[in-house]
Specification:
The structure is a homotrimer of 207-residue chains.
Chain A: H1 11-34, H2 39-66, H3 74-100, H4 108-132, H5 136-167, H6 172-205
């Protein structure tokens, strides 16, 4: 019987865990950017968060394949889980590249991008709380905040990129390194915006 | 009652608008490439087109969530809207990067890539007109043209990329800048090909 | 009648062809890396494989649009065909970039990445054989192997990337070239992992 009528899965509990990992990963990234001492040790911590988040995402996908009835559309659950996982992967990729590139000191722009990214994940957390409470008006408000953050991060990214070519006029290797890291941060922010867009779609279906 | 039986949405009208924006954006990009004077002013124009196109895409997605019956499969509408939006985003990203990188003069290859990209969007426009007229044979013909253009753009892109490393042998920063811009143009062309592939799929389902 | 009850399509036969092309493309890539003589001729061979693989993928998509009953879920067939095609496209992109960049001698890391990538495609082949035989336990085992290979390739990629900046400290153009090629190889490996993840999902649905 258990196979035919499986226990209802609480996807919100799983999303809560995923988003907690996204907040923790971006917070650890920010703390690493602000204080680059013991970078290797801090990076290991972020890698561990990324690994834990992976397990949760696999769990979501596994349960999605075994469940008939879901609180929100299957494709939306799949997309949300993928995008949140992407945010964490990109936070890790950013740290990883700093080690691979043997960076010794983050740029001021990198610190600011990490700070804004962490702030954005907090809005994602709040948007999901409102979604679980079925307070769709507030979900929409937080989605607007996430979009606003994405615009802000994009502006910082563009200025940072332009400045890079001025500052490292004679050190193309440095341009390549930071361009790669900035792009990871900006892509993470894009994934946050994707989450907001999916949430707006869910709200519309329930309107 | 209006909620239960919503007015039938004319997705073709929305796609017409979207594609008009794609044609306008790539035309403005080409005109900027051909004459780089007042680049900032022209860039603002393209950014405005990109913004208007975003609103149309959001409109498509919103109406898709509220409509039961669609003239073509829901996923196809979703994919088409996304890909057309991507073309416009990439045209804008291309202009944006030229400003961010403080480019003062486009390369000859960049002008040609922009020209071919604009031509491709015209074929997309025609393919959609034939789709609306249910003239599936002509849809297929325009899809072949779009694929032909993509091949041509890819060839130009490859030559341009190779030449970059010869021409700017001693200016790696310049290589990075133009490689990024060329890649945006080539990716925009890939999105045009995606549109053609989705259209071919739609034609098959109606065969 | 044929239109209403089309002959059942054997998607496994098509996937067999696709995967055979993926194995052939990565094997030819490896052989090119190991012996770079007559690179142009060998590249043409890989391009031809890529073209043949494209035809098979188009065939899968066409038949998917015309078939009501499929042995595995439609979306899974679509995703698998897309990902396997991506692997072949990226193997070709890698070769293509070596010609475009006028590379004269592959790095040791590039050879090793190509070798591991080819090994991974063999595991994909075996996983599909077990899937067709409905031996789901063995499918899972091969998926674990594919994931293990992806981890290994990722480690090689990271070391190779870091070494690039040391070795070509004064030749940024060379860093750009090899970074691009390594990224294609690493992305191909990511696509292999995607295939494994989709296969694991299919196994779960049949559990």
């Amino acid at each position: 019987m258990k196979k035919i009528f499986p226990r209802r899965i609480d996807f919100f509990v799983l999303f809560d865990q995923s988003i907690a990992h996204a907040m923790a990963a971006t917070e650890a990234l920010l703390s690493l950017m602000e204080n680059f001492e013991n970078a290797e040790g801090k990076a290991k911590q972020i890698h561990e968060i990324e690994h834990q988040a992976d397990l949760v995402t696999h769990d979501v996908m596994r349960k999605l394949n075994q469940t008939f009835i879901t609180p929100i559309d299957r494709e939306d659950i799949h997309e949300l889980a993928t995008r949140i996982d992407d945010i964490i992967d990109l936070a890790w990729a950013c740290v990883d590249k700093m080690l691979v590139f043997r960076i010794t000191r983050p740029t001021r722009d990198a610190v600011q991008l990490a700070r804004e990214l962490h702030e954005t994940t907090k809005f994602i957390h709040r948007a999901f709380q409102e979604l679980e409470a079925k307070d769709y008006e507030h979900v929409k408000e937080y989605c607007i905040e996430i979009n606003r953050m994405e615009n802000r991060i994009d502006r910082i990214f563009r200025t940072a990129l332009g400045d890079l070519f001025e500052e490292y006029r004679n050190d193309a290797a440095m341009i390549i390194k930071w361009k790669t890291i900035y792009e990871h941060l900006e892509e993470a922010s894009d994934k946050c915006e994707d989450v907001a867009n999916i949430l707006e779609g869910i709200v519309l279906k329930h309107a």
